[in-house]
Amino acid sequence: MSDARTDASPTAAPSVVVLDYGSGNIHSAAKALEAAGARVTVTADRGAVIDADGLLVPGVGAFQAVIAGLRSVRGDELIERRLAGGRPVLGICVGMQVMFERGVERGTESDGLGQWPGEVTELGAAVLPHMGWNTVDVPEGSVLFRGLERERFYFVHSYAAQHWSLEALAPFPAPKVTWAEHGTRFIAAVENGPLSATQFHPEKSGRAGIRLLTNWVDSLRS
Amino acid sequence: MSVAVRVIPCLDVADGRVVKGVNFLNLADAGDPVELARRYFEQGADEITFLDVTATVEGRATTYDMVRRTAEQVFVPLTVGGGVRSTEDVDRLLASGADKIGVNSAAIARPALIGEIADRFGAQVCVLSLDVKRSPKTPSGFVVTTHGGRTETELDALAWAKQAIELGAGELLVNSIDADGTKAGFDLELTRAMRELSTVPVIASGGAGKLGDFAPAIAAGADAVLAASVFHYGELTVGEVKDELREAGLEVRP
After folding, report:
1. Which region, left, alpha or beta, applies to residue A29 given φ > 0 means left and ψ of -120 to 50 means alpha?
2. Which of A9, A22, B66, B177 qualifies as a FRET site for B100, CA 20 to 30 Å off?
């Protein structure tokens, strides 16, 4: 999975670190990123995380456990530092949820990383988890979903952010928010400057998922 | 609700090999579960399930390798069931690339296992697999069996499903032992009963024989349909089943 080359030519495959902090199945994420054209390293090494063209933050399980895992490798600081420098970060599933201010799971409230305002709460649906392939409502100008507006993606979660309150701050472009619905409308993806995230699992979403990751990896070249 | 109906092929494997004979053309190795999983992925499978019947400890090593190789090539969710006894087993399977883990007899012997898996990895990882038979001995008329249906437990299938959901199971894989192998269609009464009590997704399994069998299982309340032999022997493709479901007015992933 790791590749020690440090090829500086502009045509070289972008380097992506999958942040390794003991969360679930990161093997698939690494393989899917390779299929999407990235050079992938799975690590929590500070230098590698900061230097990579892109950082992928995976996450499965409980909000609180993911936050604790991230903090244990100082992932919160590394994410903060990358974003402050405009360096791309992609959060997946609970790796997206922790970007918000708070998570409320089974009555327990936990602090998130607070990159975005708002909280992650249980979906109001008769059947949970929301498990399976769902459609998404993509905003104009999305880079992640370019060519994929009519595709389905694989979701497996019971909690989600259900409100978006961050306005555009000139001169920066407005955040692009993609929505989906299961019982209630919730946020399926966000593209906000260097920080992007998906509630679904692109690495488990077949060819559409690989193409979404390819869109992200391609954006790292610039 | 716009989440698509899922079609899930199941592969029975032992010691890293497909258990029953196969009828696929153009496969380099017809007994290789990884090749078969990739074929199903190409046909549009929404998930893949491995049911591992490996009996020996040494054989389990090949299971992890099989899961790892599959996850490298097949970018849809993988469920692995069979022989899972502890959170350590779950941890190793997830680290190998599995997304969901099916528990069956070990959870019957020790129901706390369900909660342990849900607490550590999330409820979405824990699939309760039930082999169910009709029986006059339980209140619901359905009993949980083990050993492929040969041994009846004391457990009422509906009560057990309900308890497992309370303990943290995130999905039910309901296999009808009566319907299994008959190719006469899913047990719709069982599916309906499970849907009524379940707050988690329900997968109907056992009895699929022809294209027309799948839509009634969804109408009876299943969120997903699972089949092994009809896909395995090439009698139906995943794509044909999805076309049939679409004709029936159901939402499927193309």
Report:
1. alpha
2. B177
User: Looking at chain B, which residue has its C-alpha nearest residue A128?
Assistant: B200
Tell me the CATH number for domain A15-219.
Answer: 3.40.50.880
Domain ranges in chain A are 15-219
B197 pLDDT more than 50: yes
With CB atoms and an 8 Å threshold, state whether B201 touches A131.
Answer: yes
Q: Which of A40, A38, A55 is nearest to A3 (CA)?
A: A40
Share of chain B above pLDDT 90, in %: 81
ipTM reported for the complex, 2 dp: 0.93
Interface contact flag, A132 B6, Cβ < 8 Å: yes
CATH number assigned to the domain comprising residue B165: 3.20.20.70
**How many residue pairs bridge chain A and chain B with CB atoms within 8 Å of each other?**
105
**Which structural domain range is residue B108 located in?**
6-247
In angstroms and rounded to an integer, the radius of gyration of the C-alpha atoms of chain A is 16
- Residues in A 79-108 with any Cβ partner in B closer than 8 A: none
pLDDT averaged over consecutive 10-residue blocks of chain A (222 residues)?
48 93 83 97 97 95 91 97 97 97 91 97 96 97 97 97 88 90 97 97 97 98 82
Q: B131 an active-site residue?
A: yes
pLDDT at B89: 94
